Amino acid sequence: MNIGIVTTWFERGAAYVSRQFFDRLNANESIDVFVYARGGESYAKGNMDWDAGYVTWGKPPKSYASTDVHLDDFKEWLEKNNIDCVLFNEQLIWAPVLMCRDLDVICGTYIDYYTEKTVPMFWIYDFIICNTQRHYSVFKEHSQCIYIPWGTDINTFKLPEILESSGVVRFFHSAGMNPYRKGTDLVIEAFRNVQGPAKLIVHSQVKLAKAFPALKGILAELTAQGRLEVIEGTVSAPGLYYKGDVYVYPSRLDGIGLTIAEAASSGLPIIVPDNPPMSEFVIDGSNGRAVRVDKLWSRWDGYYWPQCEVDRQELTDAMQYYVDKYPYMAEFKRISRQVAEENFNWFKNTEKLADTFLDFKRLSDSTVWDYRALAEKNDLNRVRNAMKGRIDRMRDSLKYFLQK
Fold this sequence. Notes:
There is one protein chain. The chain is of the alpha/beta class. It is 37% helix and 18% strand. The strands form 3 sheets. A 7-stranded parallel β-sheet has the order 3-2-1-4-5-6-7, with helices on both faces. A 6-stranded parallel β-sheet has the order 10-9-8-11-12-13, sandwiched between helices. Strands 14-15 form a two-stranded antiparallel ribbon. α3 (95-102) links the parallel β4 and β5 (106-110). α6 (184-191) packs across α10.
């Protein structure tokens, strides 16, 4: 069976999700896996970690809509590689999905982003893969929807052989490309009130002072005290988890929570919101603490699930707990690793994934017909909005240039 994965394919979280599916499926002798790297965002051509013979770097799409693909190029890829089944990663434009159906290619997706309006459109897919209980609760009525608990490569993300004992609790936080969504400001504000020997290490792919101008003073204060270290830039797996003792991640919203599983596998107890899917990684309170949510509210784009914000004092208290319990830190880390081995081992959780793919059936056209019109209308609106946004930006740039 030839399986194609349509995805972004460079150093970012969504691509790591696709890579985990690739590695698991490609390990089966009955399956060959190919990657169609969508154009329009970024390429990793020449990068030895991402560029390989099984990767096709898709042509830039004809529209400016996010996740759109060049359909002629996509069709050529399907036919050239005799693709039998396609797994889409965070596909917001439905045209390539509909093309797969028209060409009798089985198509499915892993669930991450959806709104109340787009949920019915997912019934166009022949199969759906949910990696959290939260997502599964929405799509479980689909005839070929499966739940596979998310996990990570526990051989890449692992507990250090020697557990350092510096006397200082090192809290680690990954801000990524979106510090606000990851709750980086909440971490910094809460950590400021932590008492005792502790240090906060933040890995960010953007400038924190620019992301949070109001926190410049706190950032400078904590840095001057030697209590804050900010590491900027992109770091490949296994990342910087080895620098921390505890992973603190009060994310306001997550589709899965990739870094939580990675941190736990690296032996870091986790501090997350008491809200799924983040809280799904805290197993019976043994490997971390779930912090009470103070408020919930809708996101501007109508994402199906609300954003959450943890109680700042309780976040401070959760961090303080590990400072006060520092003598037990080595044991906390061993327990976190053990829980990860039992629950977040991707290769264990997906041991039947390849067989499941071989069993997926194509749904009849009549079954999905009612949802095609919704998908086509969705695409039209997205393309129009993307074009309007681009024209508006060009107009603003021209106005600025003329004023100069």
